Amino acid sequence: MLSCQCVKNHDQPFFVCPSSQCYACINSCSGLLQFAILPIMIKRLDTRQLWLIMPSLMVTCASLMTLQQTASIHLIAASFLLMKAGEYSVRGVTTEMVYVSLDYESRFLGKEIIGVFVNRVGKSAVAIGLSAVAAYFGTQFDLHYLSIALAVGATAWLIVSWRLAGMLSETDTDNEVKSKTE
Question: Is the pTM of this model over 0.85?
Answer without folding.
Answer: no
